[in-house]
Specification:
655 residues
Length: 655
């Protein structure tokens, strides 16, 4: 066997749910059966591989054909293997350490090596002057060293000196404090001070090797005193990021993207198309006749629902950034911050199109002498009374002749006012204006209550529901591809669009299918594997795609299925006007409650800290954003009132 083949076959344990686990399973079993405690391996790489075998055994990942006796024999080898590995690394000292570490060069066992050296006291026995050069010679990088808590603690001063030796090492500080998806934990020396971090980050921002992604991470971060990040450093990073982006586009043309919205003489109320002839441009045209025939107040608001598609069939807003809408590259590339609102192409496209739709419709209504803010006022001051006997609501439109700066500030204040009004009404069943006047706290959009108990269904995060959602809907699951003829973007699509028999699945896929069968998600009737319950599937699909399902938009059978899922511990019901994802969307645009990379429009305009350099155009853009947000809020409130009225009528009919 060649040296390259030997490297390829070396076993590693990446976790029980990793796809590579199945590929290495047979080798793990073979090595476990071949292990002789009286004749243990003597090379470092063999011992590290044996350590990985031990983890396979500890997680019960044994050959499917094993009987109970064979399982018991394999389990009995766990303490024997653990003891052999411990004896090997306990024997490491200053004299032999370089030889031991050198044996790992070229293999992906650096993390295991550092862990086992620390677990068996090598850092207490050996000097930093011996260990650190030997690790460097074996290709162990600083980032890997910072992942070993015991090493960093033992060699604090030496690791600090190494960390501060190069501006590029600032990326490790950023991974520690800011980066959301850093794969491994980062341990910094205790002797590192906030001033040390500040100086390192400044050098990094100003340096030639600055990565625009990391610079952007600093610019959009929350102030982090432990890392030396304050408003001044954030501004420094923002300006440097703008400079780096400008330089990039001087050398690269990029791809033309955009959105166009227009009114046309057409039969269909709305037509959308994607033009890929010169980049990616979404075009939407709307029927002039339709718009002219829907100029009454109810129809104007309904057009945001049915014409512009602000909500889906379950009255959940399409505007938020849902994790399921992120593409593979968007999920795995880049350097998202821990406090960032994750956005991708779908969100940007929806954001752009919905803003243009709002702008176009606002302008169109103005040509008909209709003020969209007056329509919103009608909703609160007339419609709610006439339809639901909900009295005392008020919304005051902006004054005629006001600047967009004044209109923005007024609209944000009125939006908070109606949110507070609805909250009081939902809690008390009536709106007491005197009580409303007593409150002055900033609105928390995620916390606005609903008129209904248990309005939304959320996954509980248990292993069962998590595995169901991943196996059915993730494009990274193992059950998406059988052959060129039997494939799908995910397992659900594969099963829906193809007649797939159980034996069509590969052996490594069958445990996942068996798992779904045991849980009652799919059924094998002998000729086809298919979804067992369409109502259950719709709930699961909503949980994955929009992070919740709307209980009161389900059929009677759907509600019964949801109740069964609650009883199993898969889901729970919670109540609020906005779903969690919708609440985060509002907070992203309006404040810094959840996220550090949002425009904070409400905070900036109501506190007078907005930037005026771009003049009225910038304020007009913010005004359109504010209009879109309050229209979305009106849609959600209307849905809440309608559902509550329907439930009340149903309850009265069954008494």
């Amino acid at each position: 066997m060649s040296e390259e083949d030997e490297e390829i076959r070396r076993l590693q344990f990446f976790g029980p749910n990793d796809l590579a686990t199945g590929w290495f399973l047979q080798r793990a079993v073979d090595l476990a059966e071949q292990f002789d405690p009286e004749n243990a391996p003597t090379s470092t790489v063999d011992m590290l591989e044996l350590h990985n075998v031990q983890q396979y055994l500890e997680h019960g990942l044994l050959a499917l054909a094993y009987n109970e006796e064979q399982h018991a024999l394999a389990k009995a080898r766990i303490p024997q293997i653990r003891g052999a590995v411990a004896r090997f690394f306990t024997g490491v000292n200053d004299a032999n350490l370089a030889t031991v570490i050198n044996g790992v060069a070229g293999y992906d066992y650096h993390g295991d090596l550092l862990e086992l050296l620390g677990r068996n006291g090598a850092y207490e026995r050996c000097a930093a002057a011996t260990v650190l050069p030997a690790l460097a010679a074996a290709g162990v990088h600083l980032g890997e060293i910072l992942g070993c808590k015991k090493l960093v603690k033992a060699y604090d001063a030496e690791v600090r000196a190494e960390l501060l030796s190069s501006p590029q090492n600032a990326e490790h500080v950023l991974r520690k404090y800011l980066q959301e998806d850093a794969r491994d934990e980062i341990y910094l020396p205790r002797s590192i001070t906030p001033e040390d971090s500040r100086v390192l980050l400044e050098q990094y921002i100003d340096g030639e090797g600055a990565n625009p992604n990391y610079v952007g991470l600093i610019a959009s971060a929350k102030e982090t005193p432990a890392a030396g990040i304050d408003a001044r450093l954030k501004l420094r990073a923002k300006r440097r990021g703008d400079e780096l982006n400008a330089k990039f586009f001087e050398r690269n043309n990029g791809i033309r993207t955009g959105c166009e919205v227009s009114v046309a003489d057409q039969a269909e109320p709305a037509v959308g198309e994607l033009d890929e002839s010169d980049g990616l441009v979404c075009r939407y045209t709307y029927s002039r006749r339709w718009l002219e025939e829907t100029l009454d107040n109810p129809s104007i608001l309904n057009n945001f629902i049915h014409l512009f598609g602000f909500i889906d069939r379950n009255a959940l807003l399409v505007l938020p950034s849902y994790p399921a809408s992120l593409g593979v590259m968007e999920r795995f590339l880049g350097t998202p911050g821990r406090t960032e609102y994750r956005i991708g192409t779908v969100f940007r496209t929806t954001d752009m199109s919905s803003l243009l739709q709002t702008r176009m419709y606002h302008h169109y209504l103005e040509t008909k002498d209709i003020d969209l803010e007056q329509v919103i006022s009608w909703f609160f001051e007339e419609y709610l009374i006439e339809e639901f006997q909900a009295e005392n609501f008020s919304f005051t439109p902006s004054g005629a002749g006001a600047s967009y700066l004044q209109m923005v500030r007024h609209l944000f204040a009125e939006m908070e006012s109606v949110a507070s009004q609805f909250s009081l009404f939902a809690k008390d069943g009536e709106l007491d204006r005197d009580l409303l006047a007593m409150g002055s706290e900033q609105v928390r959009y995620k916390d606005i209550p609903s008129l209904l108990d248990g309005k939304y269904i959320y996954a509980t995060g248990t292993d069962e529901i998590t595995s169901i959602l991943n196996l059915l809907f993730s494009d990274q699951a193992s059950v998406t591809y059988i052959s060129e003829e039997l494939r799908g973007d995910n397992a659900a699509m594969l099963l829906q669009e193809n007649n797939v028999a159980y034996d069509d699945f590969h052996d490594y896929q069958k445990p996942a299918i068996d798992h779904l069968i045991r849980l009652g998600i799919v059924d094998n009737d002998g000729t086809r594997v298919q979804l067992t319950n369409i109502e259950q599937f719709r709930i699961l699909s909503a949980l994955f795609n929009t992070q919740c399902a709307s209980y009161f938009h389900l059929s009677d059978r759907g509600r019964a299925v949801a109740d069964e899922m609650v009883a199993k511990g898969w889901v729970e019901r919670r109540s609020s006007l906005l779903s969690e994802a919708e609440g985060k969307y509002f907070n992203y645009f309006l404040n810094a409650v959840d996220f550090s990379n949002g425009p904070e429009l409400r905070n900036k305009y109501l506190h007078g800290s907005q930037v005026n350099a771009e003049g009225e155009d910038a304020h007009f853009h913010t005004y359109m954003t504010a209009l879109r947000l309050i229209v979305a809020l009106v849609i959600k409130m209307n849905d809440d009132f309608c559902l509550a009225a329907a439930e009340e009528a149903l309850a009265e009919a069954t008494e």
